[in-house]
Write a structure and sequence with these properties.
globular, 4-stranded antiparallel β-sheet, about 650 residues, alpha+beta, 37 strands, 11 helices
Length: about 650
């Protein structure tokens, strides 16, 4: 980009800032928001560690992402707690260490206890694993976890449940051969008890090239995540990027050539995203100034190089990169971190090639040597903000104003077992016949970690038409007519119905239905009751609830056989129905169906057992059917 064009775009940005209707699309607010951290380590010259990772992750489960930084001159790890509005307070007493030669940071729940732990790769010294103990305190469990032999030239790392056994395993990229450190890449298999076993050689994944970044994603759409490796110095040493197809049961097959993803470049960062909206995930690799390849997924297990027609070559020395919808227009855009010979790039997607380079206009060119980046909705306003790490400079926090112009929806995806953040799950969203595909990643871009909340722009639409999620390890759901401008919980099917999150579906969980039944607009907290995912609590949801209901059911006629659930499921013998009704005590108009003097879970259980029927008991408004109005009546008389 020439100087005249840069000056013109910057002038446009400065002019736009005068009007509240046209704010600067992004503005660096790190200092004013309290995210003040100077990165000194990670220099490029002389085989330094090539930048220092950053992480945006909700480490205290309050819904807002914290910021974690490494690479200060005193080696102090930076922990910045989000106050809930995008302003930060730095914590010093967290248990996180001073980390000499810190390289990358990834947040993941390795022990499945519901909070995010932190793994740090380090450059030619011991990598470190820190367990989140709650209240933003951490304990070094590297030795305890059996990971004391991770001492390579550590760069990027990424977690995945590769064998679908319910817990997360860790792949660590080492730039093998750096400063005579010949430690190959390592794969730490989670034993499920807080310890790990290194299995890369056994599985054929101990890549000994100068690997920079691993990326897990399901390139062939077969339900498990495959492994792609970004390899440095491929341009002059004959190595290439490598693709390992996951065939299950711990079996990986190299398909680099077969998939046509084996680019031989000086590959650094790697971005994964659905750029053309065809439902398949594409690959973008950063390179030296010869140009960055864009590998478009054909959907048949192969890729085609498309950087020229997309005009996203960048032609600078690139590092971190990521696909994200910065302007909320329902397609994926592309950001690229550059150094030395080029400013950072932001490629805007118009749902057709070529893309437009708009970094200057959007005020995210970021002068200097940029290495690492992370994205997340820092200020909780519905658009994605951007953290950029420059060498020998303060961390940049670019707050997004452009996304405010359009609608959005976000999902807090909740998995089961020891993968509560549902890492490896894929989401396919549809807005106005436009498709966007995400795979939940734990370790992405380059040495860094993005916020786990899944964000989709809606453009001018007020709702998301359809979303399909395939959970890792197993399970799927479809959501329809999802209201926009809200963050919804997206629960694994096994979690539905458990309103109080005590691990079972019992009478206490029934209490949620009366207040939500057929009520609009749908409210946060009701997602757990919405079995069919249409964002309206209806009779179908109640019946699905009864399918998994584990609580006691009233045996109305005291015969020990027939109960309200059997009636609801249509399994009661006809000759017993009259006896069941007669055996139940008469209710008063207060809703006390079981006659115990209070209106409680027992009455609600009985009412739902007769749902949709014409039984006289429970038909408070005497309209001939036990329905939502009767539920509301019962709730109005609920006993405290």
């Amino acid at each position: 980009m020439n100087t005249q064009k840069i000056s013109t775009c910057m002038l446009l940005s400065a002019t736009a800032a005068i009007s509240a209707d046209f704010p600067i699309p992004f503005f660096d607010e790190a200092v004013s928001r309290g995210a003040i951290y100077h990165v000194f380590q990670g220099q490029f010259e002389g085989l330094g560690s090539y930048g220092c990772g950053v992480a945006l992750a909700d480490l205290n489960n309050d819904g807002a992402p914290e910021l974690v930084c490494v690479g200060a001159a005193n080696n102090r790890t930076g922990m910045f707690v989000n106050n809930g509005d995008g302003f930060f307070t730095r914590l010093l007493d967290t248990g996180l260490p001073d980390l000499p030669n810190a390289s990358g940071v990834v947040a993941a729940d390795y022990d499945g206890d519901g909070d995010l732990d932190l793994h740090f790769t380090c450059w030619n010294v011991q990598d470190r694993l820190y367990r989140n103990d709650g209240l933003l305190t951490f304990t070094d469990v590297t030795i305890e976890a059996g990971m004391e032999h991770s001492m390579g030239a550590g760069t990027g790392a990424a977690w995945i449940d590769h064998d679908l056994d319910g817990d997360l395993d860790l792949y660590v990229a080492n730039r093998t051969g750096t400063l005579n450190n010949w430690t190959p890449n390592q794969f730490w298999q989670n034993n499920g008890d807080g310890t790990f076993t290194e299995t890369a050689a056994i599985m054929g994944l101990d890549d000994s090239y100068a690997t920079i970044q691993p990326a897990w994603f399901d390139y062939d759409s077969d339900g498990d995540s495959d492994l792609y490796l970004s390899t440095d110095k491929g341009g002059n040493q004959g190595s290439s990027n490598r693709m390992f197809r996951n065939d299950g049961l711990g079996i990986f097959v190299e398909v680099s050539s077969e998939s046509q993803s084996n680019v031989s470049i000086d590959s650094m960062g790697v971005g994964i995203g659905d750029l053309d909206g065809n439902g398949h995930l594409d690959i973008y690799c950063t390179n030296i100034p010869q140009g960055n390849p864009l590998l478009m997924n054909n959907g048949d297990g192969t890729f085609r190089e498309s950087s020229e027609i997309a005009e996203v070559g960048s032609f600078a020395t690139g590092w971190g990169t990521h696909f994200f919808d910065f302007d909320n227009d329902a397609d994926e855009d592309l950001y690229v971190c550059n150094m030395l010979d080029g400013l950072n790039r932001l490629y805007e997607n118009h749902r057709t090639f070529p893309l437009s380079e708009v970094a200057a206009y959007c005020n995210v060119q970021c002068l200097g040597n940029s290495y690492c980046m992370a994205v997340g909705d820092v200020d909780m306003d519905g658009d994605l903000d951007l953290v950029v790490q420059n060498h020998k400079d303060l961390i940049r926090l670019f707050i997004n104003n452009e996304g405010d112009m359009r609608n959005w929806v976000k999902f807090n995806v909740r998995g089961i077992g020891k993968n509560p953040y549902a890492v490896g799950s894929t989401l396919v969203a549809s807005v106005e016949h436009r498709i966007t595909t995400h795979e939940i990643a734990a370790g992405s871009c380059y040495k860094s970690s993005n916020d786990y909340i899944q964000h989709f722009g809606l453009d001018a639409q007020d709702h998301l038409e359809m979303l399909t999620i395939n959970f890792s390890p197993y399970g799927s759901r479809d959501l329809r007519n999802v209201p926009g401008m809200e963050t919804w919980d997206l629960l694994h099917p096994n979690l539905l119905g458990d309103l109080d999150e005590d691990g079972d579906v019992d009478p206490e969980d029934l209490a949620g239905y009366p207040g939500a039944f057929e009520v609009t607009p749908f409210q946060r907290g009701w997602e757990v009751l919405d079995f069919d995912g249409n964002f309206l609590i209806e009779e179908d949801d109640v019946m699905s609830f009864l399918d998994v209901y584990e609580g006691p059911i009233e045996d109305c006629d005291d015969n020990g056989i027939i109960d309200a659930l059997e009636i609801a499921m249509g399994t009661a013998p006809d000759e017993d129905l009259d006896g069941i009704i007669d055996g139940c005590k008469d209710e008063s108009l207060t809703g006390d169906l079981d006659g115990n003097g209070v209106v409680d879970g027992g009455d609600l259980t009985m009412l739902l057992g007769w749902w949709g029927s014409a039984w006289p008991h429970g038909d408070f408004n005497q309209d001939g059917t036990i329905d939502g109005q009767d539920l509301l009546h019962l709730l109005a008389h609920w006993s405290n």
